[in-house]
Amino acid sequence: MKFLSFIGALAIIVVVAAAAFFFGGFYNVAATEPNSSVVDWALTYIRTASINRYAAEQPPIPIEDAAIIQSGARAFASRGCANCHGAPGVMWAKFSEGLRPDPPDLKDVAKDLTPGQIFWVVRNGINMTGMPGFGLVEAPDREIWAIAAFVKKLPEVSEDDYKAWTAETGSAAGEGAAPR
Ligand code: HEC
Prior knowledge:
Layout: H1 2-23, H2 37-54, H3 66-78, H4 81-85, H5 106-109, H6 115-124, H7 141-153, H8 159-165
Helix pairs in contact: 3-7, 6-7
Bound molecules: heme C.
């Protein structure tokens, strides 16, 4: 019984201390302050587990279709993805270097994600990161699937392909930073 009340008292102390720490403003949310490796590990783990659980949809369109991939490239350019992620031959915007977490280079992560996972992330976004939910700004699902088809293809897309596919949109470029 003594042991149980000890555990109970300890639990109350931990809760009060955590409340004082977080609500007292001691946790530093500045992007200039790197997360501790435990926080980083937890956030990455939680994000991956969440995407694995929720992203279950199969593509309703043929994602290997060249016309769809190219329309996805145009949507990628016009929706501003390249500002944060860059694109073949396109610099990301300088401000994206100030985002924490850092927007990944999509051609490196494309192989680890299914089309359904890419669709889900682009449609719903990732809370508390810079990744917007494009479903919230009424991007149609069909367009988001085309974007997913393009992102999946990214490792094979050359700079010339991207330039040709996005020629009409005119908003492919970010401004000023080194190529990723
Ligand atoms: C304002 C910056 C910003 C814009 C614009 C943006 N993203 Fe992101 N994106 C991010 C950040 C930051 C992350 C990383 C989130 C994280 O680490 O949890 C991310 C993550 C992702 C991921 C998940 C990568 C992974 O490893 O799980 C995909 C896919 C993605 N973005 C695609 C897109 C596409 C496609 C667009 C355009 C329709 C887009 N993003 C627009 C900032 C952005």
